[in-house]
Amino acid sequence: MGITVEHLYKRFGAFTALDDITLEIRQGELLALLGPSGSGKTTLLRVIAGLEHADGGRVLFEGGDATALPVQQRGVGFVFQHYALFKHMRVDQNIAFGLKVRRGKARWPRARIDARVRELLSLVQLEGLEKRYPAQLSGGQRQRVALARALAIEPKLLLLDEPFGALDAQVRRDLRRWLRQVHQATGVTTVFVTHDQEEALELADRVAILNKGRIEQLGTPAQVYDQPASPFVYGFVGQANRLAGTKVGTQLQVHGQWLPLPAGVSLSDGPVELFVRPQDLRLVEADQPGWMATVVDVPRSGPHVRLHAQLADGTPLELELPAATQVPPVGSQVHVQASRFGVFQTG
Ligand code: ATP
Question: What is the model's pTM?
Answer without folding.
Answer: 0.87
